[in-house]
Design goal:
Elements (H helix, E strand, L loop, with lengths): L1 H6 L1 H21 L5 H8 L2 H24 L4 H12 L6 H7 L4 H27 L11 H25 L2 H28 L9 H25 L4 H12 L3 H11 L9 H35 L1
Subcellular location: Membrane
Membrane topology: Multi-pass membrane protein
Keywords: Membrane, Transmembrane, Transmembrane helix
C-alpha cells in the first residue's frame, strides 16, 4: 500500500496540499476575534512596517538571491514562490512562545493572507516572468480561486466558529485541526521523498546554499528593519517570525497548480520547486527558533 502511495503520489499532491491548507486556516480562524486587531489598528506603526517588509523587502531579497547565485530555474522559481506567499499559520504560535506581540503577529498573518488573493498572483507574475518560457501563461485566476477557497473562506468560517463556540471549545477545535494539518504535511513530505522527487543530490550544494542564504537573509534583514525603525522588541520579534516563517502549504498548493505533477513523468522545474519549498520549511524552523528563544530568555532575565 505504501509503495502504491509513493508511485501515485503525484495524483494526491494537490489534494493533500489544499486539504492541509484548508484545515490549518480553519484552525487559525477559530483562534481569532475582532478584538485581536483593534490594538494594532490604533497604533499601526509596527503593523505598517511589518506589511511593508512582507510585500516589498521579502520579494526583493528573493530576486537578489536568485540573481546572484547560479541555481537551476526550478530552485529560483521555488525561492520566488516562497517569497510571494504570506506568513505561515504557525508564526502566531512561535511568536506567542517567544513572548512577542501576538496581536501584531495575528494581524500580519491575517492581513497578508486575505491580501494574498491579489498580491500572490501579482508577485508571481512579476518575479517569475524572466524564468519561464515566453508562451507560458500564469494561471492567475486559478491561483486566486484556490486562495479564496483554501485560505480566506476557511479563515472566515473559523472566526465565525470562534464567536459561536465557548472559548475552550474553539481552542480545542483549533488544536485538533492544526494537528490534522501537520499530519498532512508529514504525508506530503513522506510521499514526495518516497517518490524520489526530493533528492538533494539532484540539485547540488549551490541550490541548497541558496535556500539557506535566502532564509538567513530574511531573518537578518527583518531584524535590521526592527532595529532601524526602533520599534518595541516584542513587535520586532513578531515581524521577524512572520517574515521568516512562510505559508509553505500555500506554496505547495500553488506549485501543484502552476506545475502539476504527473505520475511517471519527470518535471525538472516542478520537482525543483517542490524540493526548494520543503527544504526551506526545514531550515526556517531552526532559523526562526533562534530569535524566539533569545527573546524569551531576555524577557525571563529582565522580569
Amino acid at each position: 500500500m505504501l509503495n502504491a502511495f509513493f508511485t501515485d503520489y503525484a495524483d494526491y499532491e494537490y489534494l493533500l496540499a489544499s486539504s492541509q491548507l484548508f484545515l490549518a486556516m480553519l484552525g487559525m480562524g477559530a483562534l481569532l476575534a475582532p478584538k485581536d486587531f483593534v490594538s494594532e489598528v490604533r497604533r499601526p506603526r509596527s503593523l505598517f512596517i511589518g506589511l511593508g517588509f512582507q510585500w516589498i523587502m521579502v520579494p526583493l531579497i528573493a530576486l537578489a538571491v536568485a540573481a546572484l547565485l547560479p541555481v537551476p530555474t526550478g530552485v529560483a522559481i521555488g525561492i520566488m514562490l516562497i517569497a510571494a506567499v504570506p506568513g505561515g499559520t504557525l508564526s502566531n504560535i512561535l511568536t506567542h512562545f517567544g513572548r512577542g506581540n501576538i496581536a501584531l503577529s495575528i494581524s500580519l498573518t491575517s492581513i497578508t493572507t486575505v491580501a494574498a488573493l491579489v498580491t500572490a498572483p501579482l508577485l508571481l507574475q512579476l518575479m517569475m516572468a524572466e524564468h519561464l518560457p515566453d508562451d507560458f501563461e500564469m494561471p492567475t485566476m486559478v491561483i486566486a480561486r484556490d486562495i479564496l477557497l483554501t485560505l480566506i473562506f476557511p479563515l472566515l468560517v473559523g472566526m465565525v466558529i470562534k464567536v459561536k463556540m465557548p472559548e475552550i471549545t474553539s481552542e480545542r477545535f483549533s488544536k485538533w485541526l492544526i494537528r490534522a494539518s501537520l499530519l498532512l504535511v508529514m504525508m506530503m513530505a513522506i510521499g514526495a521523498s518516497g517518490s524520489g522527487r526530493l533528492n538533494p543530490q539532484a540539485y547540488g550544494a549551490i541550490s541548497i546554499g541558496a535556500v539557506v542564504l535566502f532564509c538567513i537573509a530574511l531573518k537578518l534583514a527583518s531584524v535590521a528593519a526592527a532595529l532601524v525603525t526602533n520599534i518595541p522588541a516584542r513587535d520586532g520579534l513578531a515581524i521577524v517570525v512572520e517574515a521568516t516563517f512562510r505559508n509553505l502549504s500555500l506554496a505547495v498548493a500553488v506549485k501543484a497548480i502552476v506545475f502539476p505533477a504527473q505520475s511517471g513523468i519527470v518535471d525538472p522545474i516542478g520537482d525543483a520547486v517542490l524540493f526548494t519549498t520543503f527544504l526551506y520549511g526545514v531550515i526556517s524552523v531552526f532559523v526562526t527558533l533562534f530569535p524566539v528563544l533569545y527573546h524569551q530568555q531576555v524577557l525571563a532575565k529582565t522580569s
